[in-house]
Amino acid sequence: MNFQAIAAKLLEAEATRKAIEPLTSTYPDLTVEDAYRIQLAGVEMKLKQRRRIIGKKIGLTSKAMQDLLGVKEPDYGHLLDHMLLLEGEPCRREELLWPRVEGELAFILRDTLKGPGVTIADVFRATEGIMPAIEIVDSRIRDWKIKLADTIADNASSARFVLGSRMVPIKDLDLRLLGMVVEKNGEVVNTGAGAAVWGHPAAAVAWLANKLAAFDIALEAGEIILSGAITAAVEAVTGDVFTVSFHSLGTINLRFV
Question: I need a surface site. Which of 19, 25, 56, 150 has the fewest CB within 10 A?
Fold first, then answer.
Protein backbone atom coordinates (compact mmCIF):
# COMPACT_ATOMS: atom_id res chain seq x y z
CA MET A 1 0.00 0.00 0.00
CA ASN A 2 1.47 3.34 -1.08
CA PHE A 3 0.82 5.70 1.84
CA GLN A 4 2.22 8.73 0.00
CA ALA A 5 -0.04 8.16 -3.02
CA ILE A 6 -3.14 7.87 -0.82
CA ALA A 7 -2.15 10.99 1.11
CA ALA A 8 -1.72 12.84 -2.19
CA LYS A 9 -5.26 11.86 -3.21
CA LEU A 10 -6.64 13.30 0.03
CA LEU A 11 -4.69 16.53 -0.43
CA GLU A 12 -5.94 16.82 -4.00
CA ALA A 13 -9.52 16.33 -2.79
CA GLU A 14 -8.98 19.11 -0.24
CA ALA A 15 -7.47 21.48 -2.81
CA THR A 16 -10.07 20.86 -5.51
CA ARG A 17 -13.01 20.33 -3.12
CA LYS A 18 -13.88 17.13 -4.97
CA ALA A 19 -14.49 14.36 -2.47
CA ILE A 20 -13.26 10.81 -2.90
CA GLU A 21 -14.84 7.49 -2.06
CA PRO A 22 -14.18 6.05 1.42
CA LEU A 23 -10.65 4.73 1.71
CA THR A 24 -12.01 1.76 3.64
CA SER A 25 -13.99 0.80 0.54
CA THR A 26 -11.14 1.32 -1.90
CA TYR A 27 -8.62 -0.36 0.43
CA PRO A 28 -10.57 -2.95 2.47
CA ASP A 29 -7.44 -4.04 4.36
CA LEU A 30 -6.65 -0.52 5.58
CA THR A 31 -5.75 -0.59 9.28
CA VAL A 32 -5.71 2.17 11.87
CA GLU A 33 -1.90 2.02 11.87
CA ASP A 34 -1.89 2.41 8.08
CA ALA A 35 -4.24 5.37 8.39
CA TYR A 36 -1.92 7.19 10.79
CA ARG A 37 0.96 6.60 8.38
CA ILE A 38 -1.14 8.16 5.60
CA GLN A 39 -1.92 11.13 7.84
CA LEU A 40 1.75 11.64 8.65
CA ALA A 41 2.63 11.41 4.95
CA GLY A 42 0.05 14.10 4.20
CA VAL A 43 1.43 16.33 6.94
CA GLU A 44 4.94 15.93 5.54
CA MET A 45 3.66 17.02 2.12
CA LYS A 46 2.12 20.13 3.63
CA LEU A 47 5.32 20.95 5.49
CA LYS A 48 7.10 20.85 2.14
CA GLN A 49 4.53 23.41 0.96
CA ARG A 50 5.84 25.68 3.75
CA ARG A 51 3.00 25.00 6.13
CA ARG A 52 3.85 24.82 9.84
CA ILE A 53 2.53 22.57 12.61
CA ILE A 54 1.07 24.72 15.40
CA GLY A 55 -0.69 22.05 17.41
CA LYS A 56 -2.71 18.85 17.52
CA LYS A 57 -6.39 18.00 17.78
CA ILE A 58 -8.16 15.14 19.47
CA GLY A 59 -11.32 13.64 17.98
CA LEU A 60 -13.86 11.01 18.91
CA THR A 61 -13.64 11.86 22.62
CA SER A 62 -17.35 11.38 23.33
CA LYS A 63 -18.90 7.99 23.99
CA ALA A 64 -21.65 8.70 21.43
CA MET A 65 -19.12 9.23 18.61
CA GLN A 66 -17.07 6.21 19.67
CA ASP A 67 -20.19 4.04 19.64
CA LEU A 68 -21.10 5.41 16.21
CA LEU A 69 -17.77 4.33 14.72
CA GLY A 70 -17.40 1.23 16.88
CA VAL A 71 -14.21 2.33 18.64
CA LYS A 72 -13.08 2.58 22.25
CA GLU A 73 -10.55 5.41 22.13
CA PRO A 74 -10.15 8.84 20.49
CA ASP A 75 -8.13 9.69 17.42
CA TYR A 76 -5.94 12.68 16.59
CA GLY A 77 -4.84 15.01 13.82
CA HIS A 78 -2.40 17.85 13.21
CA LEU A 79 -3.17 21.57 13.27
CA LEU A 80 -1.31 23.63 10.68
CA ASP A 81 -0.92 27.39 10.46
CA HIS A 82 -3.30 27.83 7.51
CA MET A 83 -6.15 26.29 9.52
CA LEU A 84 -6.20 29.05 12.15
CA LEU A 85 -8.79 31.79 11.66
CA LEU A 86 -8.42 34.99 13.63
CA GLU A 87 -11.31 35.82 15.92
CA GLY A 88 -13.82 37.79 13.86
CA GLU A 89 -12.44 36.47 10.57
CA PRO A 90 -15.15 34.76 8.50
CA CYS A 91 -14.88 31.17 7.33
CA ARG A 92 -15.15 30.86 3.56
CA ARG A 93 -17.64 28.10 2.88
CA GLU A 94 -16.43 27.73 -0.73
CA GLU A 95 -13.05 26.48 0.54
CA LEU A 96 -14.64 23.47 2.25
CA LEU A 97 -16.82 20.48 1.34
CA TRP A 98 -19.24 19.67 4.18
CA PRO A 99 -18.18 21.74 7.19
CA ARG A 100 -19.48 21.20 10.70
CA VAL A 101 -18.91 23.29 13.82
CA GLU A 102 -17.81 22.10 17.28
CA GLY A 103 -17.06 23.96 20.51
CA GLU A 104 -13.88 22.86 22.30
CA LEU A 105 -11.39 23.75 25.02
CA ALA A 106 -7.89 24.56 23.77
CA PHE A 107 -4.84 23.78 25.91
CA ILE A 108 -1.91 26.13 25.34
CA LEU A 109 1.26 24.31 26.37
CA ARG A 110 4.08 25.97 28.27
CA ASP A 111 6.19 22.80 28.38
CA THR A 112 6.69 19.78 26.14
CA LEU A 113 4.70 16.62 26.90
CA LYS A 114 5.96 13.29 25.65
CA GLY A 115 4.72 9.83 26.54
CA PRO A 116 4.54 7.15 27.56
CA GLY A 117 3.31 7.57 31.10
CA VAL A 118 1.88 11.10 30.87
CA THR A 119 -0.82 11.73 33.51
CA ILE A 120 -3.50 14.36 34.04
CA ALA A 121 -1.21 15.95 36.63
CA ASP A 122 1.55 16.22 34.01
CA VAL A 123 -0.90 17.93 31.65
CA PHE A 124 -1.82 20.47 34.34
CA ARG A 125 1.84 21.23 35.06
CA ALA A 126 2.66 21.67 31.34
CA THR A 127 -0.32 23.88 30.46
CA GLU A 128 0.05 27.66 30.30
CA GLY A 129 -3.70 28.18 30.13
CA ILE A 130 -7.03 27.28 28.57
CA MET A 131 -8.68 29.18 25.71
CA PRO A 132 -12.14 28.79 24.19
CA ALA A 133 -12.13 27.41 20.66
CA ILE A 134 -14.34 26.56 17.72
CA GLU A 135 -13.26 23.77 15.41
CA ILE A 136 -14.62 23.51 11.89
CA VAL A 137 -14.36 19.88 10.84
CA ASP A 138 -14.70 18.73 7.26
CA SER A 139 -14.26 15.50 5.33
CA ARG A 140 -12.61 14.83 2.04
CA ILE A 141 -14.52 11.53 2.05
CA ARG A 142 -17.78 11.73 0.12
CA ASP A 143 -20.88 12.54 2.22
CA TRP A 144 -19.05 11.92 5.53
CA LYS A 145 -19.31 8.16 4.91
CA ILE A 146 -16.39 7.49 7.19
CA LYS A 147 -15.07 4.72 9.34
CA LEU A 148 -12.27 5.19 11.85
CA ALA A 149 -9.45 4.62 9.37
CA ASP A 150 -11.02 7.09 6.90
CA THR A 151 -11.08 10.00 9.33
CA ILE A 152 -7.62 9.25 10.72
CA ALA A 153 -6.04 9.19 7.26
CA ASP A 154 -7.88 12.44 6.46
CA ASN A 155 -6.05 14.21 9.32
CA ALA A 156 -8.93 13.47 11.71
CA SER A 157 -11.30 15.47 9.46
CA SER A 158 -9.52 18.72 10.34
CA ALA A 159 -10.24 21.92 8.42
CA ARG A 160 -10.20 25.22 10.37
CA PHE A 161 -10.33 26.47 13.95
CA VAL A 162 -10.78 29.72 15.87
CA LEU A 163 -9.38 30.67 19.26
CA GLY A 164 -11.12 33.10 21.59
CA SER A 165 -9.35 36.16 22.97
CA ARG A 166 -9.10 35.10 26.60
CA MET A 167 -6.71 32.62 28.24
CA VAL A 168 -7.34 31.49 31.82
CA PRO A 169 -4.86 29.60 34.02
CA ILE A 170 -5.86 25.94 34.18
CA LYS A 171 -5.75 25.96 37.98
CA ASP A 172 -8.60 28.50 38.04
CA LEU A 173 -11.02 26.25 36.15
CA ASP A 174 -12.97 23.09 36.90
CA LEU A 175 -12.77 21.68 33.39
CA ARG A 176 -15.20 18.83 34.04
CA LEU A 177 -17.97 21.22 35.06
CA LEU A 178 -17.17 24.02 32.62
CA GLY A 179 -20.31 24.60 30.58
CA MET A 180 -20.74 25.56 26.93
CA VAL A 181 -23.67 26.75 24.82
CA VAL A 182 -23.73 26.64 21.01
CA GLU A 183 -26.09 28.95 19.11
CA LYS A 184 -26.72 28.84 15.38
CA ASN A 185 -28.36 31.91 13.86
CA GLY A 186 -29.56 32.97 17.30
CA GLU A 187 -31.05 29.61 18.30
CA VAL A 188 -29.53 27.34 20.95
CA VAL A 189 -28.63 24.06 19.24
CA ASN A 190 -26.29 22.38 21.74
CA THR A 191 -25.25 22.59 25.38
CA GLY A 192 -22.69 20.56 27.28
CA ALA A 193 -19.90 20.48 29.83
CA GLY A 194 -16.23 19.51 29.78
CA ALA A 195 -16.85 16.10 31.32
CA ALA A 196 -18.24 15.01 27.93
CA VAL A 197 -14.64 15.04 26.67
CA TRP A 198 -13.18 11.65 27.65
CA GLY A 199 -14.40 12.21 31.22
CA HIS A 200 -12.02 15.17 31.61
CA PRO A 201 -10.43 17.27 28.84
CA ALA A 202 -6.99 16.94 30.45
CA ALA A 203 -7.35 13.16 30.31
CA ALA A 204 -7.80 13.46 26.54
CA VAL A 205 -4.57 15.48 26.28
CA ALA A 206 -2.73 12.88 28.38
CA TRP A 207 -4.09 10.15 26.10
CA LEU A 208 -2.77 12.03 23.07
CA ALA A 209 0.71 12.48 24.52
CA ASN A 210 0.89 8.77 25.25
CA LYS A 211 -0.55 7.75 21.89
CA LEU A 212 1.97 9.87 19.99
CA ALA A 213 4.86 8.21 21.82
CA ALA A 214 4.44 5.25 19.45
CA PHE A 215 5.42 7.59 16.59
CA ASP A 216 8.17 9.34 18.60
CA ILE A 217 6.13 12.57 18.44
CA ALA A 218 5.76 14.99 21.35
CA LEU A 219 3.28 17.70 22.21
CA GLU A 220 5.65 20.63 21.94
CA ALA A 221 5.89 23.71 24.14
CA GLY A 222 3.79 26.50 22.63
CA GLU A 223 1.47 24.18 20.76
CA ILE A 224 -2.32 24.48 20.73
CA ILE A 225 -4.09 21.25 21.67
CA LEU A 226 -7.80 21.02 20.86
CA SER A 227 -9.04 18.57 23.46
CA GLY A 228 -12.19 17.34 21.68
CA ALA A 229 -15.77 18.36 20.99
CA ILE A 230 -18.00 18.95 24.01
CA THR A 231 -21.16 18.39 21.93
CA ALA A 232 -22.12 16.99 18.55
CA ALA A 233 -20.96 18.84 15.44
CA VAL A 234 -23.47 21.17 13.74
CA GLU A 235 -23.70 21.54 9.96
CA ALA A 236 -22.82 24.94 8.49
CA VAL A 237 -23.78 26.64 5.22
CA THR A 238 -23.09 30.06 3.73
CA GLY A 239 -24.70 32.78 5.83
CA ASP A 240 -24.76 30.82 9.09
CA VAL A 241 -23.59 32.63 12.23
CA PHE A 242 -22.45 30.62 15.25
CA THR A 243 -21.99 31.87 18.79
CA VAL A 244 -20.23 29.56 21.23
CA SER A 245 -20.24 30.67 24.87
CA PHE A 246 -18.09 29.11 27.59
CA HIS A 247 -18.51 29.62 31.33
CA SER A 248 -15.52 31.63 32.67
CA LEU A 249 -13.89 31.82 29.22
CA GLY A 250 -16.14 34.09 27.18
CA THR A 251 -17.78 33.89 23.77
CA ILE A 252 -16.61 33.29 20.20
CA ASN A 253 -18.58 34.27 17.10
CA LEU A 254 -18.07 32.67 13.70
CA ARG A 255 -19.67 33.60 10.38
CA PHE A 256 -19.68 31.56 7.17
CA VAL A 257 -19.48 33.55 3.93
Answer: 25
Do 250 and 228 contact (CB within 8 A), yes or no?
Answer: no
Residues 91/137, Cβ–Cβ less than 8 Å:
no
* Averaged pLDDT, 13-33: 97
* Coil, helix or strand at residue 244: strand
Contact 123, 147 (CB under 8 A): no
3-255 carries CATH number 3.90.850.10? yes
CB environment 200-225: b (16+ within 10 A), e (fewer)? bbbbbbbbbbbbbbeeebbbbeebbb
Q: Which of 64, 55, 54, 61 is nearest to 75 (CA)?
A: 61
32-48 and 3-16 helices, crossing angle to 10°: 60
Domain boundaries, the chain: 3-255
Kindly indicate the confidence band of residue 10, based on its pLDDT and cuts at 50, 70 and 90. Answer: very high
pLDDT digits (tens, 9 = 90+) for 66-99: 777 777 889 999 999 999 999 999 999 999 999 9
- Reported as a single tens digit per residue, the pLDDT across 14-23 is 999 999 999 9
